Structure formats: structure tokens, C-alpha cells
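Running co-folding for pyridoxal-5'-phosphate.
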Amino acid sequence: MNAMSTVSPVQQEAGIVDRIRALESQYLLQNYARYPLVLQRGKGCYVSDVSGKRYLDFIAGIGVNALGYAHPRMVKVIREQAGLLLHTSNLYYHEYQGPLAERLAKISGLARTFFCNSGTEAMEGAMKMMRSHGRKVHPEKYEIVSLHNSFHGRTLGALSITGQEKYRKDFEPLLPGAKFVPANDLVALEQVVNERTSGIVIEWIQGEGGIFPMSDEYARKARELADRYDALLVFDEIQCGVGRVGKYFAYQLTDPVVLPDIMVAAKPVGCGIPLGVIVANERAAQTIGSAMHGSTFGGGPLACRVGLEFLDILEGLLPQIERTGAYFRMKLEELQRHFSFIREVRGRGLMIGVDLAISGKQIVLDAMEQGLLINCTHDTVLRFLPPYIVTEKEIDRAVRILKKVLKAAAKRDTAS
Ligand SMILES: *Cc1c(COP(=O)(O)O)cnc(C)c1O
């Protein structure tokens, strides 16, 4: 301690950051390109690093921290459940799977749930359901149709139907039978779906792909083709679902609602506790019989209790999400009038992308420096996934910071 006393607090923190980075660079697989920020604690929409610097968090764990940080009701149930029962396996019942599944059925318009631990794992299960469905009809009915630019996860199965070369190329050959079509192209979809199709998989709003919503006509066409060829329609709501757009699920924005046969969700459901769900109608649920699928951790008492508590809170938040989302988009459209390199503002609710004619990388770093966390997807799309509890005041603050860093970007742009 004495030796440390000659070191200033700022130097100490620099020391912590350097030590953590050195350990990770020596001992971790080098798959992540992290920002040089060591986060320590959070409250509401703000998170602090080890030096105590606060950041307004508008990426919020990539859409996971729906209630921000340290929400009092979450802290309470997690504390309580940790002292009672964390894990049971699926050999026995506990009090929370049934009620959470009932709740999911009511809000989704579907019937039965399988619980797992991540988005990818939910998609993987949905793929087994499509395969099993197809096999019952014909051994050759195993094709899965998905979209260019989609993202469905990183296991070999989910990767096989992810329509982005950069994620796939190092792992080929992947599963046979994956067919890709451009989004919102009704003719292309009609041409590729046939008797060999076991399922059609769609993100209602593409997230990693750059915040691209589907049209209502496209959702209707997908439903019609799935019915015509006895295929399962699967909506990947992992990023756009569970409140993100001001409805429980993004497909509920379609008017009239187009129901999928299977819906997968994850990111915000457990508010940071790993929890993924497959929710299916009765027909799709019949594809998984006794012992055909399972998970050791899936649907544990802690995760399910947290999920139930979250859905309880979410009910009251939905109108607010629609309102703050519209407010945020309006403010971003105002910025668009100031900066010619903003091509488009896209999205619904609190899932928003700002498409730029320039790279977004430096803008993300500058925003971080100014105390705002955002992210950039597809090189040029600034992505915003703020907590559902975000206020108009916090949005104003984020927009002020953005305006400042966009001004700097405009200067760089004209200088180059
Ligand atoms: C994040 C995401 C996944 C993968 O979820 P993980 O929890 O990272 O496995 C799949 N689909 C979509 C649309 C996603 O945004």
C-alpha cells in the first residue's frame, strides 16, 4: 500500500486497465475487438468504468439490459432467489417455468415454450423443429429459407442460415439445404419456397444487418407460402422482440398480425441473466417429442423468475417505449437535416439505426470519449438499443453528444 501512495488515482486506474488488458491478451481467445473500457457498475441508463467516469448507455449490453442497470425489482428477486434455489436441472419441477410459459403464450398468441440460455441456442432448437417437421413429410424436405444480411447466431446450425458471408466463410461447409433470398422481395421468396422447404426464418427487423424492417406484405407472403408448402414460419425476435419496438413482439406491428409457427427470443428476456425461449404453436410444438431436445441449464428457477418479473414490469412500459422511441427518431431526423452524410434514420420503438455515408467507427469512439455508449453495425450504421426505461431527458443528452461528435466527423470529412 505504501508503494502505491506515490501513485495518483488516475495512474492507478490506468494500471488496472492495462493489467486487465494484458491478462486478456495473454489468456483469452482473441476473438473480441473490445473498446479500451473496463466497466464496473451501473444504475438506470448509466454505467461507470473503474475510474468512476459515467457513460449514458444506448447500446445497453446489445439490447440485453432492457431495465438498465441495478433495477430495484430485479436486484430484489435475484437476491431472494439466490438464497432459495438457483438450479434444479430439468429432472424436477420448480415454481417458475410453468407461469413464465403461460405468460409467454398469452402475450405471443402461441402455445408452448422451450427454455434455453441464449439466442443462438433458441435458433438451434427451432432448426431442429423445422428439420423434424420436414422429415415427417419427406426425407428430402429439409431446406430452410432465410434472408441475405440476416443474423441468427454462431453455432454451426444457426450460422448455416445466417446470410452474411463474413460470419460463415471460415467454417464452411455448413449444413446443407440453406437458401438465401433478398429481404422484402416477394418474387424471390415465391421462387425459392417449394415442397422441399421445411421452414422460413425471418427477423422482423434485421439487427446486426443494419436495422432493416420487413414490410407487412412480405410477412403476409411468407405466411402464405409457408402454409401453401407445409413449412414452418419462424420469426427471430432475439433482438427486435420482447418490448423493444413498443409491442411485446415485433410481428405484432403487422396489421393484421401475422403469427409465426415458432418465435425465438432471448436478449432482453432475462435482463442480463442468460435466458432464451422458443415459443411455438401446437402444430410446431408436436415436432419435438419425448427426449428429442433438452438443456441442463435451460429454464432454471433464477432465470425464469427474473423473466416473469421482467414481463410484469414490461406490461407498464410498452406505451412509454413507443413514445420515447418516436421522440428519439424525431430528434435523429432533426440531426439528419444538419448533416448531409446521414443517409437514413430507420427502425421502430427503441431499435434505431442511423445510416451514414461515412464510416461510423471514429464516431463511436468519440461518443464514448464524450460519455455516450453506442455501437456501429455493418460499418456505417450507428445502432441504438437504449434501455426501455430511457427518458426524454436522457435522449436529449445523447442527441447533444451525438451532434457534437457528428460535427467533428463533418470537419474530418471535408478536410479529407
Ligand atoms: C444476438 C442475436 C442472435 C444470437 O443470440 P446470442 O444470444 O448471441 O446467441 C440471433 N439472432 C439475432 C437476430 C440476434 O440479434
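Result summary
The chain has two domains: 27-70+318-415, 73-314.
Residues 27-70+318-415 form a domain with the Aspartate Aminotransferase, domain 1 fold (CATH 3.90.1150.10).
Job closed.
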